[in-house]
Amino acid sequence: MTINIILAGPRGRMGQEAVNMVNQESDFKLVACIDRKNGGKEVKDIAGLPPLHVPVYENAKECFEAVKADVFIDLTVPEVGYYHTKLALENNIRPVVGTTGFTDEQLNELAELAKSSNLGCIIAPNFAVGAVLMMKFSQMAAKYFSDVEIIEKHHDRKLDAPSGTAKKTAELIRQSREYKKQGHPDEEETIRGARGAEMDGMHIHSVRLPGLVAHQEVIFGSPGQTLSIKHDSLNRESFMDGIKLSVNHVMDMKELAYGLENIL
Ligand code: NAP
């Protein structure tokens, strides 16, 4: 069976990689793209993309109404990605969303919409399988170590901080870890933010530097020992296996899954 796909954000770093992945998969077919700067053109007219006679729409509503598709992939920015995802569900198309930075309210609203529409929807802050394992291993370790700090490092074009992966890791750790407010009870920051962001007593530190892609280290400590669990995405190809898996999986789902770990 061929899965027809609409993709938003084809000029972006993730989008370009995903267009190429979809184009190379024999069971996937790119049927349209949504791009705010190239409405009315074809994919072949956009620099860096394969020579495909696939229409590009500027307006998502127009695209979803005009083109019949099974799955919608969003790799844009949070405000637009949220709007696109909602619109896709309203048009009976299953979203696979890599865009990060959605609020809890937005996620809840999309979950309700997917459920009431009986449609699958996958929103994953990290599509790299290794990163999902890092989160799972961290959740396992948190049962035995209540002191943990998360250090996430990304390229300096990233809009949201902390990363969706760091927040998701902290949420998973919270489910296994006994609550603890970490550090010295009287500790004081002499420069604001020195201890990073606090979530449920844990600390998350965000590093932004050119040259980085997506990296995270979760460090646990207890008397006499530390345990580090680390994952590095060296390029954006690392996310494509997870997107491929999600496109196939979302076809058989009837509600929203947040995080790739729910379908692995
Ligand atoms: P990027 O290179 O900046 O690409 C973003 C794309 O979104 C561009 O094509 C951009 O077009 C478009 N865009 C920006 N603002 C827009 C707007 N207001 N309306 C319509 N389109 C708009 O970013 P990226 O590195 O590809 O990342 C894309 C998203 O994926 C981000 O949210 C990032 O955090 C996330 N991400 C997720 C994973 C994962 O595994 N889930 C991994 C890496 C990244 P313009 O050039 O016109 O601005």
Automatic annotation (TrEMBL):
Domain called Dihydrodipicolinate reductase C-terminal: residue spans: 130-264
Binding-site residues, (S)-2,3,4,5-tetrahydrodipicolinate: 155, 164-165
CDD domains registered for this protein in UniProt: DHDPR_N
Coiled coil: none
Compartment annotation: Cytoplasm
Residues of the active site: 154, 158
Main location: cytoplasm
Enzyme class (EC, first level): oxidoreductase
Listed GO CC annotations: cytosol
Top-level taxon in the UniProt lineage: Bacteria
Pfam families the record matches: DapB_C, DapB_N
Gene Ontology terms describing biological process: diaminopimelate biosynthetic process; lysine biosynthetic process via diaminopimelate
Binding positions for NADP(+) per the UniProt entry: 37
GO molecular function per UniProt: 4-hydroxy-tetrahydrodipicolinate reductase; NAD binding; NADP binding; oxidoreductase activity, acting on CH or CH2 groups, NAD or NADP as acceptor
Catalytic reaction equation(s): (S)-2,3,4,5-tetrahydrodipicolinate + NAD(+) + H2O = (2S,4S)-4-hydroxy-2,3,4,5-tetrahydrodipicolinate + NADH + H(+); (S)-2,3,4,5-tetrahydrodipicolinate + NADP(+) + H2O = (2S,4S)-4-hydroxy-2,3,4,5-tetrahydrodipicolinate + NADPH + H(+)
Residue stretches making up the Dihydrodipicolinate reductase N-terminal domain: 3-127
Keyword vocabulary terms for this entry: Amino-acid biosynthesis, Cytoplasm, Diaminopimelate biosynthesis, Lysine biosynthesis, NAD, NADP, Oxidoreductase
EC number of this enzyme: 1.17.1.8
Pathway(s) annotated for this protein in UniProt: Amino-acid biosynthesis; L-lysine biosynthesis via DAP pathway; (S)-tetrahydrodipicolinate from L-aspartate: step 4/4
Protein residues bound to NAD(+): 9-14, 98-100, 124-127
Family: Belongs to the DapB family.
Assembly and binders: Homotetramer.
Function (record text): Catalyzes the conversion of 4-hydroxy-tetrahydrodipicolinate (HTPA) to tetrahydrodipicolinate.
Stated name of the protein: 4-hydroxy-tetrahydrodipicolinate reductase
Annotated source species: Oceanobacillus profundus
